[in-house]
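Protein modeling request. Please complete all fields; requests missing the sequence field cannot be processed.
Requester role: graduate student
Desired output: 3D structure, token encoding
Chains: 1
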Amino acid sequence: MSTASEAYKNNRVGPVLRSSDITEGVIEAAHEDNPGKQIHVDDKIAYVRIDTDNELLLRRETLERTLGRPFRMSELEVNLGSFAGRIETTDDYVRFYYEKTM
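Delivered output (102 residues):
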């Protein structure tokens, strides 16, 4: 069980997506774009939480490959119910990150 004194150790970041036709492609892209990281997927049927420690990157190019069609990053934003961490968006990628300094 986590205690308040251990909360500083939680640097989980990533999207919370409404379940849609892009969800599986985003999960696959998260694994592909973040090699060596353990990606956690929590499927709650109505939404899916995808997270990892410190930084999670999703590239448009990878999403196009996993979805098998052209993809605009704004499509991800439409399906983004929430997210953990901070977010940086461009036309080519979305980066979820958390940089804590103590």
